[in-house]
Every structure is written in C-alpha cells, then in structure tokens.
Design brief:
381 residues, Glutathione S-transferase Yfyf (Class Pi), Chain A, domain 2, 2 domains, five-stranded parallel sheet, binds adenosine-5'-diphosphate, binds magnesium ion
C-alpha cells in the first residue's frame, strides 16, 4: 500500500473517498497491432519513459495500453485500421496488477467485426462490463481539439469520463445512441416516402426521453462538481489569476426532454433529424465573458487542456480509490518546462499513478525523470 502524502485538491463532494490501492500494467504483448508484429514489453517501474525517433511506434504503444483499458483505440473507432497492414486481425494482452491481484486482459480482433475481450480467460458478454476496471487518462498532441474543436469532442470526453465512474450512465448512453439512430432513420424514411407514422415516433420517444433525461441529470451534477476542480488546476498550471468560467450548455436546462421532443416533432420531420437532446450538449469555456476558444492564446489553450486532463485524473482517482494509468504522448513538444514540471509533479509526486511518457529525445526524457526523483525505466524503441 502506498501512502499518499498530499492530495492537492482535497475531496470532491459527490464522490466517496476510498482506501487507495495501486494499479500497474506489468506486461504487454502486441500481435499484429499497427506497426508491431509480435512484441513483448515488461514494465518494472511505476514510471516508464518510451523514447525513439518519429514513426517508431511510441504513440501506437500507448494506444495499445489505452485499448486494453477501454476496449478501443484512443484515435479511431475502426478496428480494421489497427490491424497491421496485410494481416487479418490483432491481439493485445496485458497483465495488470491491482493491489496484488493479477488480471490478464486480452483483446482479440479477428476481422469483420469479430472481437473478444477476456478477463482472466473469461470472455465478457458485453464490452461495457470492462469499462472502469482499469481507468486511464491519455494526453496526446491533437487533444487541443477538445478546446477549440466542435462540441462532439467535449461530449465524448465527458461521456468517456462518466462512463468509467458509473456503469448505469454508460448503459443509458448506449440506449440513447441506439434509439436516436433509429429515430433519425425513421424521420429520413418518412421524408422520402412522404408518409408519417406518429405512433412509431411515439414509441421511440417514450424510450429516448427517459434515457436522455437521465444522462442530462448526471452530466449536470457531475459538471457542477468538476468545473471548480478544472478552474483550480487552470490557475495552478497557468500560474495566473485568470478567471475561467465553465458552463454546461444543454437544451434540457430550460425544458424537460420529453416536452422538447414533442414540441420539435414537426421541425424534426421537416429536417429529417432529431433537433433536441443531449447529443447537442456542450461545455462552454469563457474568459472575461468571451468564448475562450476564439481568443485564447496557444499557451492558454494548453493550460486549459491540461487542467481538463488533470481534473479527469483527480476525479477517477477519488472515485475509484486508485490512480488511473496516465499516458502522456509527446507532451515535451507541447509544453514549456514549468508547465511540464507542474504536470509531472502532480501525478508522480502526489500520487502512486503509473505513468507512461514518450519523447523523441532520450536525454530530455531522462533528465525530466531524474528530476522527479522516482524509480523509473526508459524503453528505447
Ligand atoms: N495498421 C498499421 N499497420 C502497419 N503499420 C502501421 C499501422 N498503423 C500505423 N502504422 C505505422 O506506425 C508508425 C507510426 O507509429 P507511431 O506510434 O505513430 O510512431 P511515433 O509515435 O513513435 O512517432 C508509422 O510508421 C505507421 O506507418
Ligand atoms: Mg507519436
């Protein structure tokens, strides 16, 4: 058991504090996954640096770890693109230690949507059963999209986070997305055939409304607790007094979802898609009442991105009772030395998190890890 010297952010109100245990990925075997034909890695230390030239497979290695935690790649939903060119499928195996207990996780993709996830040789009935068992947080170079991109990336971030904390939320989300898809194809069909069957829409709305309402309620409560944590991290990372406002933006704030759905039906029929719902939600960042993404400098964007990720890390840790695995891809390229130092200190000095960090420059990586004064290993690819 590792003693936590300092929890920099205190306890968040809605999550119960648990006794802390440790989680560590000890071994990883990749077969026909992206550029890895057959490779085996052993991780002996809590902090693992991965160095190598561009294109050697650093990001792919982190992505394989992400895959074992989430049953999917961080970068793509298409399993076919993870298969090594010219091969038929891939296999990933990870040996995790959770407070002394061993877990062998295997993800096997055989092509043509045939996929299995196993925990200690037992196949899951649903992949969702695995979500939340080994939480991890990835920070990758293109993540700034989360700040400046469309609302979809922020919804995905939020959903990924809450789903790891609450299996019920994930179930509601699966139901919502399925019914929404059915509703949209029905609307499209009605437009094409110029015939409307309102009773069919009633049936779908009766399923969509409670799922959407439940997701909304949970997002609202969750964000209320999360936003101050993000704000605090932002102040710490940026080293400024800049006051950041974050707001949950949802059509459901002004009207119950069932009512909104009913009201927008004629508009939905005209547009052949569903215009109201939690699939339109957003998290809005403001600074001095101006939209952050429009005027924030690159430095401010990066600070906010890291604040979001660190808040994610904190919440998972607080809720789960152990630190998520942290995957930092090429962050040296993106952060100045003081932001970088702050980030590493937050996760390495104050927590027992396992950290994987990549860099093209072995010396720079070695130096940063030496400064941290924690046991580490460097793998050169
Ligand atoms: N499905 C695939 N099959 C074979 N090679 C792949 C596949 N997907 C990506 N790669 C290769 O992986 C390499 C990039 O790996 P990456 O992890 O991004 O490198 P790094 O992060 O070290 O710069 C590229 O050479 C690319 O061609
Ligand atoms: Mg890379």
């Amino acid at each position: 058991m590792v003693t936590i010297n300092k929890n920099p952010l205190g306890t968040l109100p809605i999550w119960q504090k648990k006794v802390y245990c440790t989680v560590q990925l000890q071994q990883l075997k990749l077969t026909q996954y992206k550029n890895y034909y057959i490779d085996h890695f052993t991780f002996e230390e809590r902090v693992v640096g991965i160095s190598g030239l561009n294109g050697v497979g650093k990001t792919n290695l982190l992505d394989a770890i992400h895959y074992l935690c989430f049953t999917k790649s961080y970068f793509t939903n298409s399993d076919n693109s993870n298969v090594q060119t010219g091969q038929q499928g891939f296999r990933l195996e990870g040996l995790f230690d959770k407070d002394g207990e061993a877990f062998k996780i295997a993800c096997i993709f055989r092509g043509q949507n045939k996929k299995e996830i196993r925990c200690n040789d037992l196949e899951y009935e649903k992949f969702s059963q695995h979500i939340g068992l080994f939480p991890c947080v990835m920070i990758a170079p293109d993540d700034v999209e989360l700040i400046i991109g469309g609302s979809e990336s922020r919804r995905r971030w939020l959903d990924t986070l809450i789903s790891q904390l609450d299996a019920h939320y994930l179930q509601q989300l699966i139901v919502y997305n399925k019914i929404l898809q059915q509703r949209n194809s029905l609307l499209k069909q009605f437009t094409e055939t110029r015939r409307v069957d309102n009773s069919l829409l009633d049936v779908l709305d009766a399923q969509l409304a409670p799922a959407g309402q439940a997701i909304f309620e949970e997002r609202r409560v969750f964000l209320q607790a999360l936003l101050p944590v993000i704000q605090q991290h932002y102040l710490d990372i940026s080293g400024t007094e800049e006051y950041l406002q974050l707001q949950y933006d949802s059509q459901l704030l002004t009207q119950p979802f069932a009512e909104g759905l009913h009201q927008s039906r004629s508009r939905d029929l005209a547009a052949a898609r569903t215009n109201v719902g939690i699939h339109k939600d957003d998290v809005v960042f403001l600074m001095q009442n101006e939209p952050f993404k429009q005027f924030a400098s690159q430095g401010q964007r990066k600070s906010l991105l890291f604040a979001l990720k660190l808040a994610e890390f904190d919440v998972l840790r607080e809720h789960k009772g152990f630190s998520p695995i942290l995957l930092l891809d090429d962050v040296f390229e993106k952060l100045d030395a003081s932001r970088m130092g702050h980030l590493l200190e937050q996760v390495c000095a104050y927590t027992d998190a396992q950290l994987f960090i990549t860099d093209t420059h072995k010396d720079r990586l070695q130096e940063a890890l030496n400064e941290l004064d924690v046991m580490h290993q460097i793998i050169s690819l």
